[in-house]
Amino acid sequence: MLVLVRHGESEWNLRNLFTGWKDVDLSDKGISEAREAGQKLKARELHFDVAFTSALIRAQRTLTLMLDELGQSGIPVFKDTALNERDYGDLSGLNKDDARTRWGAEQVHVWRRSYDQPPPGGESLKDTAARVLPYYLQEILPRVLRGERVLISAHGNSLRALVMVLDRLSPAEIVKREIGTGVPLIYWLSADSRVASKLELA
Known about the structure:
202 residues; alpha/beta; Rossmann fold; 6 strands; 14% strand
């Protein structure tokens, strides 16, 4: 079993700022979303053997809050920059409306929603997938296939890279796929690593 959870709302999500690798904490709403995600998993009596998260506090804190709700704070947790949000480069820290004024709404839309067009000094979704997927294949998937129950707390775009592979989506399809904050996505994989079934706890 593999469970993916995007971190709860961050302080910069709330302020409509590009965040990327900037290390921003959760908002009050984000704390509530993280706790609710843990409660939803607990209601389904899910137990985890191991957890993975990024090097950024908003994902780590979401994981901590979920595990607290689950009563499973003692499980091993692995943190790695491979699971970080995509780097927004020159856009990081800017208000999204200000960025549209500076570069034009169409250009900002391309940077945000295309698969392979990075913002200046940053990463595209394709670039993000190039670091997320090897880490998944080497460190996470073998555990799932051994029968371990794995929880990942990460970010909208690092999780999009995983969902693209799991759900076999095209580049055009994945950029349209929204991943809500604090919404657990549960995957059960078959022995050949394909998705046998999945559930979204919206």
